[in-house]
């Protein structure tokens, strides 16, 4: 095992070749009052498609947050909770930073613009997820993310470098860490980083992160360390949610979002952003079985036929994948039906 040590940083390589943990916390000291429960509210922010929802789902071990391969899958603030011993971790999954131009282009809810600010107001700690596999943005934080961090500088924050398994060069990874932290973690320079006032580099990141983690949210590498870090920085408090709760979203909303996420995965370009999903039937027949039906409103018959595919094959594929995600979400059997409807036309007219 190769290690690089300092007074605040330990870099080690695991089965994914590298997991970095900065064992330092700028969190306030725990309250003296000892209560049965400890709580931590975590705002997860980052650029679109950086892997925020996938990371949360992996930590809570449920597909609560809708995730797809396209940008702007998450359209509203949602909470996902998990219990570990006597600690309740509450994640605030936020939409990726979105401009008014993007909101118009993808026909996104207007509430997405500035939605992240609500999560920051509730957060005890902020986690910034950054995709280091993107060659265009791997060495610099999104401008809006940096602005948010500076505006909430009183809230401790940590950096999560995601998709590190896609990088071939460790040297490249270390360079990204230096750029994204401006060569500084927890107020101390990263070993090997020299600052020359005569040749100062342009700041690409944020220099007030207390910790840095390297993960692959998709396969779970490095996720355990983040969970342990959050548990270690929880505050003594009364429970905000029942230990039985794992989200603040309704089952109906979760099902609609799961369908929407799979439409984003299976359909090209901007087509899925023009579709509307609506739950038409929901019934928990037993404790172990859910039966539901979702209508997908299409802007035209051409789009409806495209979604359906030859002989309805594509629609069946979408339904199968949605069902798998819902079983993972609810931890019970799910029977789901998808119905395509054309805007301003009845189903009979379409058929």
Report a brief summary of the structure:
The N and C termini lie far apart (63 Å). The protein is α/β, with parallel strands linked by helices and 351 residues long.
Describe this structure in words.
Strands 4, 5, 6, 7, 8, 11 and 12 form a 7-stranded mixed beta sheet that branches. A 3-stranded antiparallel beta sheet has the order 1-2-3, with no helix packed on it. It has 10 helices and 15 strands. It folds into 2 domains: 9-236, P-loop containing nucleotide triphosphate hydrolases (Rossmann fold); 250-349, GMP Synthetase, Chain A, domain 3 (2-Layer Sandwich). The longest helix is centred in the last third of the chain and has 18 residues, at 313-330. Residues 1-35 and 347-351 have low confidence and may be disordered. α7 (251-266) crosses α9. The protein is of the alpha/beta class. α4 (143-151) links the parallel β7 (125-131) and β8 (157-162).
Name a few traits of the molecule.
15 strands, GMP Synthetase, Chain A, domain 3, GTPase Era, mitochondrial, Rossmann fold, 10 helices, 351 residues, 7-stranded mixed beta sheet, single chain, alpha/beta, 3-stranded antiparallel beta sheet, 2 domains
């Amino acid at each position: 095992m190769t290690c690089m040590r300092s007074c605040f940083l330990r870099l080690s390589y695991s089965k994914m070749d590298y997991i970095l943990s900065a064992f330092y916390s700028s969190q306030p000291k725990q309250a003296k009052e000892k209560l049965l429960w400890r709580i931590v509210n975590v705002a997860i922010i980052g650029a679109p498609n950086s892997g925020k929802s996938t990371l949360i789902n992996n930590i809570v071990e449920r597909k609560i947050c809708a995730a797809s391969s396209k940008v702007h899958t998450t359209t509203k603030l949602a909470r996902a909770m998990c219990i570990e011993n006597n600690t309740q971790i509450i994640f605030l999954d936020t939409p990726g930073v979105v401009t008014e131009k993007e909101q118009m282009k993808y026909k996104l809810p207007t509430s997405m613009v500035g939605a992240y600010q609500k999560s920051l107001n509730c957060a005890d700690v902020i986690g910034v997820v950054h995709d280091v596999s993107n060659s265009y943005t791997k060495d610099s934080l999104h401008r809006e993310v940096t602005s948010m961090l500076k505006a909430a500088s009183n809230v401790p924050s940590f950096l999560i470098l995601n998709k590190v398994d896609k990088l071939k060069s460790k040297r490249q990874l270390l360079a990204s860490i230096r750029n994204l932290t401006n060569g500084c973690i927890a107020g101390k320079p990263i070993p090997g980083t020299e600052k020359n006032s005569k040749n100062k580099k342009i700041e690409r990141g944020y220099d007030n992160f207390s910790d840095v983690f390297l993960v692959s949210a998709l396969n779970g590498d490095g996720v355990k360390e983040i969970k342990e870090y959050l548990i270690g920085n929880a505050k003594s408090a009364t429970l905000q949610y029942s230990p039985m709760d794992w989200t603040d979203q309704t089952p109906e909303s979760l099902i609609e979002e799961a369908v929407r996420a799979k439409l984003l995965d299976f359909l090209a370009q901007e087509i899925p952003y023009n579709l509307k999903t609506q739950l038409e039937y929901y019934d928990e027949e037993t404790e172990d079985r859910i039966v539901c039906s979702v209508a997908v409103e299409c802007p035209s018959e051409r789009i409806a036929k495209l979604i359906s595919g030859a002989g309805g094959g594509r629609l069946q594929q979408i339904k199968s994948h949605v069902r798998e995600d819902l079983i993972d979400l609810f931890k019970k059997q799910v029977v789901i039906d998808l119905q395509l409807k054309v805007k301003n036309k009845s189903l009979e007219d379409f058929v």
